[in-house]
Give the backbone structure.
Amino acid sequence: MLPFPLRVTTLNLNGVRSAANKGVDDWLRSEARPDVLCVQELKALEADMTPSLRTLGGLPGAAFQHAEKPGYSGVGLYWKHEPDEVRIGFGHAEFDAEGRYVEAIYKRPGGGRLSIVSAYFPSGSSSEERQQAKFRFLADFHEHLLALKAAGEVLLCGDVNIAHKEIDLKNWKGNLKNSGFLPEERAWMTRLIDEAGYVDVFRQLDPAPDRYTWWSNRGQARAKNVGWRIDYHLATPGIAAQAKPDSAWIYTEQRFSDHAPLTIDYA
């Protein structure tokens, strides 16, 4: 059983060892203090995960899916409270080999369950081949999310590599034909929210512009806040309704990665 209130942080690390060297563990322990931590882009193999990397934020439990390719992708999920079940991968050989999915399942009193997922969606920016792989992922993952929702409450956290609406990136007019803001990708998000019933929890709490979680390393993008909001908490309505007002927090004071941590409290 997972006790509430619950604080959940998600962060694309752009390399777990790199982020650790930049002080992410100290920040997690002293300021964020999450009950659940979802991370993406480990860029590390099983043998690279030292004891300190396995207990980020002082969280005693963790599970990982590493990519078969060294220095690539990989996701992790850390927890304070032991789940009833852990699933590594979502049953798609192509993308499970890339290390994109970890799920912790908590059974609830009287029946039902809550699945907390750390996911890393493919980027299609490097080539047309990778964009087509991203489309394949989106098609299959939509069906997976429907099945998860049918089984219980879901909180999916991670790097979705899609900015949903114009408010979600600074230079939207210049990115209409670029991966991450393509019409097909945005339509996938709309379908997930409007038809499948998932909730973009951050936007439920904070409708303001200029709220971004990723910035290019080129130029002065971060200093000028020329960013994208591509890191999400996507939840089924029951858990989304528990998100505490004014609790959505994008932390930008320190730089652990090219992404910023996103934290939300659930009552």
